[in-house]
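Now for a concrete sample entry.
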Amino acid sequence: MISKQSRRNALDLAWQEFITCGGVRKGKVRPEILASWQRCCDAGVDYTDGSCCNILSPEQFERPREKHDALIKTAKPFMNKLYEFVAGSGLVVFLSDESGLILESIGDGDVADNASKVNLVKGTGWREETVGTNGIGTSLKTKKPIQVSGKEHYCVKLHTWTCSAAPIFDPGHRLLGALQMSGPSHAVHLHTLGMIVAAVEAIESQLRIRENTRELTLLNQRLNGIFQTMSDGAVITDKNGLICQVNPAAETIFGSKIRGCSLKRIFKHRHPFLDAVEQGKPITDKEFMVDTVHCLVTTRPLWDGKQAPNGAVIFFNPLTKVKKLINRFSSSQASFRFSDIIGRSLVLKATIDEARHAATGVSNILILGESGTGKELFAQAVHNHSHRRTGPFIALNCAALPRELISSELFGYADGAFTGAKRGGRPGKFELAAGGTLFLDEIGDMPLDQQAILLRVLQEKKITRVGGGHTIPVDVRVVCATHKDLKQEVEKGNFRSDLYYRINVIRIRVPSLRQRPDDIYPLFTNLVKKICARQGIFKPQIMPAVFDHLAAHDWPGNVRELENVAEKMIHAGRSGCLEPDHLPRDIIEKRPACTPVESVSPAARNMDHLMTERDRIVALLKQHRGNVSRVAREMNISRNTVYRKLKFFGISRDQSFS
C-alpha cells in the first residue's frame, strides 16, 4: 500500500517535471489536475505566485453582491450548518459567483488570516486563468466537483492548502457559482468534498423550491388578475358550497355580500347548475334566470389531490352583455345623425328641431310620413342624439314578415318551441335592443293579435319568449314609423286604439319631397356624388335644365324615387354630363311650359328669393342695431321666426351691425 508521504513525493516530482518539461508521464497525476495545469500554462499563469491580484473595492463589490442576493440568502444557512460540523478544525467555507468572485466566507480566525495572505477573501476573483489550479476556479471551469490538495495547485503559494469545491446550478442548469471548503492540507480529508457536494445539492434543491414558489406566486397573481378583471361574473366555492371568492363583475350582478354565503341560500330556486356543482359536473353556456338576471352559466368543478370534488368555479355572463356584443359585430348600430339629413327648407329644419328635442326624452315616438321620405333616417338620428346612443339600434319591418313569425322575431323563442326552432332558443329583437332603441317600421301593418302582445310588453317592460316559461325584463325605447294614417286605421278597426295611444306619445311628421322643393337641388347633387363614389366613377356635370324638370315633378316616391332617378341618369349619361334627355320619360313629359320671362329654373328662382330675404334681414338688423323685435315688426313675422331664419342663414346678430 502506498503511503501518504510517497504520494506527496510522487506529486512533488510530477509538479517539478511539468514545470521543467511542460508535461508529465501518464499516471503520475490525476487527469483533471494535469488538464488544469496545461490550461494554466497556456494562459501564462505565474507558478511562483498564487495570490489573487484582482481585488474589488467595497463600492465595486456592492453591485455583484446585490446581483447574487438570492444565491447568498439561499446558501448562507447551509454554509453556517456546514461550518458547525468543522468548527475549530481550521477550515473556511467560501461562496463564489459564476466568475469565481468570492461573495461570502465563514471560517476559523487563524485560517482566515492565512487565507488573507493570498487574498482568499471576499471581493477577490479566483478564476483558474489568473491564480492557477484551485478549488473554485477549476470546479467552475470543469463544471464538476473537485478537491485540489497541496502541490496539485499550479502555484507555489497554494501548495500548503487543500480546497474542496463544487459548482452550483440554478433550476434551469445555468451556472450560478461554487461552494468551497479550504484549509491546511493536513486538516482536510476526502469526506470534505462529499460534505461540499451534499451542501450544494441542498442549496440547489432550495433554489428549485424558491423558483417553484416564485412561479406559483406569479401564476397565482396572473390568475387572480384575470379573475378580478374578467367581464364575466365569477365565483369560487369550497367543497361545502360556500362562496369563498367573488370578482367585481359578480358583485355588480349579485351584490357584495354574497362572499361566505351558501349557493343554496343565495339562489333560492333550485337551478340545474346547483346540482351540477354538487355532483362535480361541468356546464357550458346554459341559459338560466338567476334571481332577476338572465345569464349564460358555465361551471367547472375543482378537484383535490385525491380526485374528489373540492368546490367549483361558476361564471355568470349576463345576456345583456352578450347581446351588446352580437349587435356590435352584426352592425346593429345607427349610422345616421341629424347632421346627415340634407335640406335647407324651413319645414325640414323645423322637423329636425322637433325630432332633436324629442330625442332627449324617454317617451315612445311615432314617425309619420310617406314612403321614401327617410323615416328610418330620422329614427337613427333620434337614437344617436339620445342618452341611449351607446346602446344598440335594432330595426324590424313589420310589413316584411309573415304574421306567424312576428312574435318569434320580436320576443324570441325557447328551446323546442316549434319544429325547426334553433337548439337552445334565440333572443328576439326586444332582448337584442336592451339598453338601446327598437325601431318598428310599418307598425300599421302589424296583425291585431300581435298588437295586443306588443301593448303588454310596452306596459310591463317584460317579454316572454315563444314557448318559454319565464319573463325577461327589457329596457328598450320604442320608435315606430308608418306611412298610414293610424287614426283612420283605428276607426276602421285595423289598429288597436290602446296601442295607438301608447306609441303616439311624441309624433314627428316627416315632410314629403313635394312639400320642400327647395331641398331638391342639394339632395340631387349629393345623391349623384354619393352614387358616383360608390361606383368608382367621376361625378358628371349636371345641366341647369335638369333641375327645371326635377322641381316640376310630384315625387310620389319622395327621396327614394329621387335616388332612383339619379342612378338611372348616371347610368344613361356616359358623356360626363347629365342632361334632360337622361331623365325618365314620365318626368320629362311633366315639364311645365315656360314663358320667355320664366327662363330661370325654379331652383335658381328659389335661391334668388332666399338670398333677397337674407339680405333684407341683414339690412334690417344693421338698421335697428340688432333689435330682433323691431326686425320682426318690419317683416310682419314673429320673433321666433326671425331667430329661425338667423340660424338658417347662418347670420350672427352681433356681427350683422358691427
Summary: Residues 143 and 167 are 6 Å apart (CA to CA). The chain has five domains: 4-212, 230-326, 331-511, 514-592, 604-657.
